[in-house]
UniProtKB/TrEMBL annotation:
One of its GO terms (molecular function) is DNA binding. InterPro entries: SpoVT-AbrB_dom, SpoVT-AbrB_sf. Residues 4-49 form the SpoVT-AbrB domain. This is AbrB/MazE/SpoVT family DNA-binding domain-containing protein. The keyword Oxidoreductase does not apply. Pfam families: MazE_antitoxin. It comes from the Bacteria. Keywords: DNA-binding.
Length: 75
């Protein structure tokens, strides 16, 4: 990866192979993490991916994770 000047900031130029591997598009957010080999790059979830996960959940909890009103109000 190459670091370049972009206006008053610095920018990291990602290789095309990494962009394809991560499925990156313009505007995506990435995260850089320390790795044994240097830095690892990961793509942050897109808003539509987060919403899709929430729609799948729809407030359903396993029976053992539910609270009863009596238990919640017990003193």
């Amino acid at each position: 990866m190459q670091i370049s000047k972009w206006g008053n900031s610095l920018a990291v130029r990602l290789p095309a192979e990494l962009v394809r591997e991560l499925g990156l598009k313009e505007g995506d957010r990435i995260e850089l993490h320390p790795d044994a080999r240097g830095l690892a790059v990961s793509r942050a979830e897109r808003p539509e991916e987060i919403l899709a996960g929430l729609r799948r959940f729809r407030g359903r909890l396993p029976a053992e994770a539910r609270l009863s009103r009596d238990e919640a109000n017990a003193r």
